[in-house]
């Protein structure tokens, strides 16, 4: 018996219908479609929300025209047939006006993921997401890892990876390179871990 491992679970259009139905019937469930495989993710807890709120405030203070759009669905991967929902996407305020549920990633300056306590968090945030965001040409990918007490900044997308990755422990400053151009003081993140 032959097992096909490279065959997608479903077509992208079928995934979009399923994701729409799931979101309307099961509050808090978000579905993603990466490498032809269905992925689910639960909504973050209160501390997760505080981290996104903290980062939103910093971005708006840096440039009031830059918004951290939470939960914006993006068409990802080289052929734009994947679907991912970063915790937040940094883009200009009107970047997604008139878009449907899934947007092209071209206006995104930075994708942000804050880790949760799911068993597949490491695989999703440190293996799959950097690859699909780099493939999509998103200039900066920020991971705030609450289990490892680290912040990772990925930049310089080149094909399926980011050429530059900088990881610092909570409490150290980290610079988000252009086109973001913000330095984060991460000491406060220590307040939002378990």
Layout of helices and strands:
Layout: H1 12-25, E1 29-34, E2 37-42, H2 46-62, E3 66-70, E4 73-76, E5 82-84, E6 88-92, E7 102-103, E8 110-114, H3 121-135, E9 140-145, E10 150-158, E11 161-169, E12 173-176, E13 182-185
Parallel strand pairs: 4-7, 8-9
Antiparallel strand pairs: 1-2, 3-6, 4-5, 6-8, 9-10, 10-11, 12-13
Could you characterize the architecture of this molecule?
By secondary structure, the chain is an alpha+beta fold. The protein has a single domain (45-192), classed as tt1808, chain A, CATH 3.90.1570. It has helices spanning 12-25, 46-62, 121-135, and strands spanning 29-34, 37-42, 66-70, 73-76, 82-84, 88-92, 102-103, 110-114, 140-145, 150-158, 161-169, 173-176, 182-185. The strands form four sheets. A six-stranded mixed β-sheet has the order 3-6-8-9-10-11. A three-stranded mixed β-sheet has the order 5-4-7, covered by helices on one side. Strand 8 (110-114), helix 3 and strand 9 (140-145) form a beta-alpha-beta unit. The mean pLDDT is 87.
